[in-house]
Each structure stands twice: as structure tokens, then as C-alpha cells.
Design a protein that fits this description.
It contains 3 helices and 2 strands; from the N terminus they run ββααα. By secondary structure, it is an alpha+beta fold. The protein has a two-stranded antiparallel ribbon. β1 and β2 form a beta hairpin. α1 packs antiparallel against α3.
Length: 95
């Protein structure tokens, strides 16, 4: 749900807009962006770069977390409809 301010005659009032009522809920791309954000925040990419630069293997737990996040994103993106609260931690693996 988004809140917009509608100005009428110089006075404003908040109006709640439901994206679903317009036929627009979360998309597969929204879910993929959330997965990418979670992978970025985990430090996966930095560890991967370090692995290439130094030859020291990255932590197995980071590799597994990345796989789990990708799996969760795939499952969420196949739901119809995708839950509005798909960003909630309950849908994603704990890092």
C-alpha cells in the first residue's frame, strides 16, 4: 500500500492506494531485486572477489546462503499472486 497526498482546493488529505486494485502487485523482477539486495548485504560478492584475487576459498556458508537465497527467490517468483510482504524475513533464509 502506498500513501499519496491529494490536494483539493488547497487542503490536502492522505489517500491510500492499493496496487492490487490496479492489477499491479509485486513482480518477478521485484523478487529478484530483493534477492540481489540480500546477497549483496551478505558480503558474498566481496568474498568472491577476494577468492579470485588471493586464491583463498570463500566460506562455504556464504556459498550456501547464496544458493538458498536464489532458491527462495525462485519459489517466491512462481507464486501467483506473489505476496505483498515478500520482503519479510520469514520468506528468506537467515544469514
Amino acid at each position: 500500500m502506498r500513501m499519496f497526498k491529494v490536494i483539493e482546493g488547497g487542503r490536502g488529505r492522505a489517500v491510500q492506494m492499493d496496487d492490487r486494485s490496479e492489477g499491479r502487485g509485486p513482480s518477478r523482477d521485484d523478487v529478484r531485486r530483493e534477492a540481489a539486495r540480500r546477497i549483496d548485504e551478505s558480503g558474498y560478492h566481496l568474498s568472491r572477489i577476494r577468492e579470485f584475487a588471493t586464491g583463498v576459498p570463500m566460506l562455504a556458508s556464504l556459498k550456501h546462503l547464496s544458493l538458498q537465497i536464489d532458491f527462495a527467490a525462485e519459489v517466491l517468483s512462481r507464486l501467483d499472486p506473489i505476496p505483498d510482504d515478500f520482503r519479510a524475513d520469514g520468506y528468506w533464509p537467515a544469514g
